Amino acid sequence: MAQASFVRSGGGIGIEFHSAPARDASGAENFNYEKGKQMSKQIIQAEGAPKALGPYSQAVKHNGMLFTAGQLGLDPATGKLKGDDVETQARQALSNLKALLNAAGLEFSDVVKSSVFLADLADFSKVNAIYAEFVGTDNPPARSTFQVAALPLGGRVEIEMIAMEGAGKR
């Protein structure tokens, strides 16, 4: 089955035809348009990160990109928040993210975008300082920070990241 899509080129609009993506056993599309070969998404699970609290993956890698689920400051061994303060929770959330990045063969330098969710925006500077310890300041990713009404399990901070293979190479 062929699919058509409209494309812009040189100020004009054209139609591009391509084969429909193949599907793997789960029904997920697995066609890599950029390289022209089939590729399925890979579920990343890390022992050094807490198990998901619901029906979602810790992280998913596809086409050289890693998308993490939001990480609270949960201790992977206990499944409970590590500490009541935002600093301890931020440090643990970033340690959890490091475990996920490493399980996917990536590092913080490969992160291209992160989102930080705070229960109280007054904690911004505290979390920012700890974030800089992990991510660095030479080549940091783009980032958004939001205050939210509440976080799961009464957490004070949650962080999610998008990373790309080779992004940390200069």
Word description of this protein:
By secondary structure, this protein is α+β, with helices and mostly antiparallel strands. The protein has two domains: about 40 residues, no CATH class; about 120 residues, RutC-like (60s Ribosomal Protein L30, Chain: A), CATH 3.30.1330. The chain is about 20% helix and about 30% strand. The protein is built from two helices and ten strands; from the N terminus they run βββββββαβαββ. The strands form three sheets. A six-stranded mixed sheet has the order 5-6-7-10-8-9, with helices on one face. The chain has a two-stranded antiparallel sheet with strand order 1-2. The chain has a two-stranded antiparallel ribbon with strand order 3-4. A hairpin with a 2-residue loop joins strand 6 and strand 7. Helix 1 packs parallel to helix 2. The radius of gyration is 19 Å and the shape is globular. The termini are far apart.
